[in-house]
Amino acid sequence: MSELAWWQRGVIYQVYPRSFQDSNGDGIGDLAGITWRLPYLAGLGIDAVWLSPIYPSPMADFGYDVADYCDIDPMFGTLGDFKQFADRAHELGLKVLLDFVPNHSSDRHPWFEESRSSRENPKRDWYLWRDPAPDGGPPNNWLSRMGGSAWEWDERTGQYYYHAFLREQPDLNWRNPQVRRAMDDVLRFWLDRGVDGFRVDVLWLLIKDAQFRDNPPNPAYEPGQPEHHRQLQTYTEDQPEVHEIVRSMRATLDEYGERVLIGEIYLPVPQLVRYYGANGDGADMPFNFQLLNAAWNAGEIARMIRDYDSALPEHAWPNWVLGNHDNPRVASRVGAAQARVAAVLLLTLRGTPTLYYGDEIGMTDGEIPPDQVQDPAEIRQPGIGQGRDPERTPMQWDAALPGAGFTNGRSWLPISTDTSVRAQDGDPSSMLSLYRRLLELRRSNAALVQGAIENVAATGDVLTFERHYRGQRLFIALNMGAADAVMQPRSAVVLLSTLAGREGLALPESGYRLAGSEAIIAAI
Ligand code: GLC
Ligand code: CA
């Protein structure tokens, strides 16, 4: 598998640092805790750890409001702790990915404090400042993704500034060359410290319309959706000039060798794939989020796989994501039985999979009592299901320990004890064992890593496809329904099933009865 880059062969695992492992009893996860748990991740069989932001932050958006791009928040540790984490990860053969948040800083970042201090300040133009409309109101109709106008009035200097998210997260002006240089320095700061790549936050939002034109209304808006869905984001996202910025980030990473650039991009596939760049000079992997809100049925998923595969530019490497810190957990979306099918799907599709911490033990969305809500997305737009606390609850290590092994103190979000790593560890039928077997099988079968994907088909509730590389052909069948389904494979031998006792089974050509919610990988 040597002709592929490590990030093409590997599997990425996202850690939400606040919720992985607390080491000092303050109820919040930290770097020392993650370092301590690295052997677990190496044993699971993943290849790269992506950490959501760990930089100094007032935590208005739990770290996605960065007050210093080149340091570590004391809550998470120090630069020394980061070094220990990265060194230990590398010793264990794991790559280290950081979250890069270039679209906006915290309003407490010294850059913004300077920028807002006067209209003449040299950093004024580092952010998006505009005069009021003639009636004194906001300069245009742009809406924040956290509710309300995206413009915040600044009394002292008599202008508004733009924030795509919270008012505590002013957007930087990426048309300003000094901003671009400063951000390039940030990338280099971490690359010099051995970081293997970045997940770039809201990459498709970086540039806004130069003329600040009003966004048009969205005719498909339905009450109950987040407020900014009232408008099409015509002038606030996916602007043509963004691609040049992606190219320059990519060029910086290329100076350091095989580093990976991943973009957080929520766009339809035809627009998404443009972020690969024209000649492979863009992002290595614009995140493919289609599975996050796919209708969970065989026909829909088959269509999605085929469309994505045919939309990919030549040489573009695919990727798939099943969960993250902004979306309900897969086990809650599709149920426990289908979460096992989803695991097989994620790890057999063509392209790099990204796992979200806790999904490997089938964690479900936590119950958050109203008085314990933390997420500003819920607090500022209550009652429309935008809250992200449920998918951010702490990792369940050992239900028998206080704090489930996550903390000795009082956890920042409630911890569920319905299952745990400890409970699943030695159980061959557990979700954790399934993930370990899948990751092991992927590692040892080139067809799963670099094989073509062929014969994608949906028959009733059963999704089937093949992975083919050199002499090896694997057949994957996933029953996305609850009822048994008979399928006609060519003669095949089961390498893995979500059910116990089927490995090694020879499948007769006459027909094989796939149990409800069973998924198999077979050699044909
Ligand atoms: C991204 C992050 C999300 C954050 C937002 C603003 O979408 O994933 O958690 O709230 O950017 O930074
Ligand atoms: Ca802690």
UniProtKB/TrEMBL annotation:
Q: Name one GO molecular function term.
A: alpha-1,4-glucosidase activity
**Keyword line:** Glycosidase, Hydrolase
| A Pfam family assignment | Alpha-amylase
Enzyme Commission code: 3.2.1.20
Ranges for domain Glycosyl hydrolase family 13 catalytic: 14-392
Record-linked CDD domains: AmyAc_OligoGlu_like
In terms of Gene3D superfamilies, this protein maps to:
Glycosidases, Oligo-1,6-glucosidase, Domain 2
> Which residue spans adopt a coiled-coil conformation according to this UniProt entry?
none
Q: What is this protein called?
A: Alpha-glucosidase
Organism field? Paraburkholderia caledonica
